[in-house]
Protein 1
Amino acid sequence: MVSIRILVLIGAVLGVIPIALGIVALVTTEWITSSSGLTSSVVICSLPSLCLPASEATLTKSLEIAGVVAIGVGVILSVILGMWTKNLLLLLLPQIFLIAGPILILIGFLLYAKYLFEMIITVPLDLGYSFLLMIIACIVGFITAVYFAFVTGSSSPQSENYSDNDSYNSCDSKRVSVVYSQRF
């Protein structure tokens, strides 16, 4: 049987992907590109006609940054708690962050698109690679949350009444020893 520590480390590597993609997407300007080649993003606005008003820009920036941070906190907590605790309730705590992060990212970039399209409906725009990176970060973030939920669920004890070397009598009264696999 695969050690729970190995599964946690695989999840940590998987969790780095949406964090890295989210950071790259936030610091690059290729969210949208105008026909003249100018670009703009949630954080950096190089094309004044594509800049959101302050309140809407702050809202979308905050949601995007909070989403990436929540995924990071969830991955870190999953690794720390997954390696050193067996308390099932504590192991579920990072799931809140891992699920909330992608949801915040999704809401943030959907609001960004909504506000932007409301602001300029007549200018043809293409989605830039930064916008697509954020979508991929959101999707991989959800996959990471599901993965850690699976690892957490598979690491919970099946029954408190079984020991590592339980035995039972079979139908023909032979003594059969059942050895349960160790998780660590």
Note: The CA atoms of residues 42 and 61 lie 6 Å apart.
Protein 2
Amino acid sequence: MMKSIAGTFFRGLTGVLPIALTLWLTVWVITTTEGLLRKLFVYILPDNFYFPGLGILFALGLIFVTGLLMQMFVFKKLWEWFEAWLERVPLVKTVYQSVNDFFGFFSSNVSESASKVACIDLGNGAQLVGFITDESLEAFADVGRDRVAVYVPMSYQIGGYTLLVRKAEVEILDIPVEQAMRFVLTVMVALINDAADPIWVAAWHTPETDAEWRLLEHRATQLQLGGTLIAYPGTGGLDHKWTAKPPWRAWATQLSDASAEALAAIKARNIEAISTAGDRIVETCEGCHQAFKMDFPTGGQYGELSPNAADLED
């Protein structure tokens, strides 16, 4: 009873907390910006000219004008000179480059190569999702002739790895960068829970257009990769404590395999096979939740799929 109450409370908390934190951060940015600029405006403007919100309007206008100026050749050169100066200052260089790279990654003006989502085959059925950031590798001429740079971030953007991978071993995924980034940051929440539902529904609500079939293929691909990634530490914010357990990795592999079956069935547009693969996904998810999340309600008992209690010990 207490586990059920605690589980319900936790699910409510996970729903409310992101909204609360987003609102808090937004209010903090607005009030801090307004508070800093208010002192300046009160000092330099005539009496009674200042009104609440003027600081935010000024900041937004300044950002917009800066964006316009950065499209001009002269301002670009000045900005490049300023950046070159920053990159010669110890510590400031490191912080500036990290922040600049992070925001540049989400910019709508990033180069085409930095906007590609890539899948790397690690062997033994394992795959890794990353982002191609450099296809020329001019800085690594000795090894970069047939390779590309693929950045693989860790959960919650706490770090990542840049891999130099042979072009022949990289598969480009037809997935938006923003969706892929949410995927690698919190695999279980952002990908698996979202991708499984359309596959289950397709068994009795058949897609009618090519666009709907392509979307379903994307969902199956995401679910397959999600099953692979949650078997490794640093990819699923909710499952880091279980990745060292063989039964957890077995469930993850089973989910990836079932998703691969679903993908093949979707490409063949075989509704019966989609239904069979969907049932296997359901059994895998419920069996895993039964084994690792005891307060999660399941629709049935899958004794033949559940690991022994002894296998769950550290």
Note: The chain has three domains: 2-106, 112-173, 186-312.
Protein 3
Amino acid sequence: MEWENGEITPEPLSIIGADDPVACAIYARDNNLLDTPGWKRFKSIAKREKKLLRMINQAKLRSFRTAPKYMYGYEIPKDYNDGLRLDKLHGNTKWADATKVEMDQLAEYKVFIDLGKGTPIPKGFQKI
């Protein structure tokens, strides 16, 4: 198994197969390993071409959703906690500062006004 940092380590097929059976089935099919002991359990996955293609596409979507996104060479956080993680990683407070400025702007422009419980809906607004 080759890791992101370039390190190559041997990993048991049982662990890799449990984590990503679709990739193992594709590898076994492409390298004619489906009749080899240890690889036979992927034969049923690789045998059904249409289902295999659907599973491949789902695996691609899953990795796309979880992959980090970059804009102009900088990683974009997925949520507030991810922004704090990036700040800690880079040793600065840029995401925290940006969040503070944004929240201060919301407060300055009085975007959210609590009218209290039981107050009638103002004219020109609707309940959502």
Note: Residues 13-66 form one domain.
Protein 4
Amino acid sequence: MSWETTTLGCSNLEKLPPLYGLCSLNELYLDGTALVEIPPDIGSLSSLELLYLNDTPMEELPSSIGCLSSLVSLNLQGCKKLKSLPNSICELKWLQYLHLSGCSNLEKLPPLHGLRSLRGLHLDGTALVEIPPDIGSLSSLGLLFLDDTPIEELPSSIGCLSSLFDLNLQRCKKLKSLPNSICELKCLETLHLRGCTNLEKLPPLHGLCSLKKLYLDGTALIKIPLDIFSLSSLGVLFLNDTPIEELPSSIGYELNFCNCVNLDQNARGTIMADAVQRIKELAIARSYPYFLVGLPGSKIPEWLSCEGPGHLIETSFPPGCFNNMFLGFVFCAILELKAPVSHEDGHLRCQSSFKNNNGYREANFTSEYFFLENTIESDHVFLARWP
């Protein structure tokens, strides 16, 4: 047969017939079926590129899976009875995406060294405690998702992932440390450590020259490595819900210190003073569209001349002020929340309306600054430069 695509959305399908004749089959969708096993002759499907087995009661794969010489994507997401993968998986030299998210009984991985084309590896929600050291041989790997796993540490070979740009370790509650080799990830742009409640210390980060976003909220960090602010590409740093007590003297562009109640007055003053300096520098250089910072506090900076109670301020501007020297606006708000905020309402919104004297023209701008995941435990001050 010369079928290019076969879709079997049959929830009662428990068994497949022989497949060896489907020599032109490109895509096989078996997701949501009742299949417990795959016929060994699946390895004869030399043209197969996509294989979807997600959300099935599959317990194991045949070793012949390694013979799928054209396979690009293998999806086993939500296969909760899957306990292992065959060693032959490493023979899939053209495999680009391996999805194992939600395989809650998968405790161990086979050798991975042969997966030279792998770009995305999704292991989130598995029962993995460790990662094979040979993961460092995956030179094409760009995405690595390990969130919501009981993993305790990463192998030092993680630093060999020369193409990695997104590393996700959210809510790895047994993770206590990161290897020093993490700083060798020159292409890493996003590092997610949110909710790693036992992570008390970070290794040196100075080599992460491409890092743009660093999520440390909900960790057990007390202080930040001094070299974190040598990261010239860093634009987003989340530190909310941490026991952090002090900061180095230089900070970045989008900073969330919500519920960091251990910050003393000096640390808060440092944050605000640095914010003012950064706002001036960024405005003059016009090199960054916005600057955001939020932290515990109840005082509007004195240098902001226009203020008032409530949620609305009206003011007039002198004639001719909107010229080439105009650098933008700075907004500040004091916010107190006593109840949890939902996903839909968890933003601080700022709307600005401008009218000329004749009332003919009006411009409305709305910016959503911070997503507030948890209850605000005290008064907070939010400061933003825009545009």
Note: DSSP finds one helix and 17 strands in the chain.
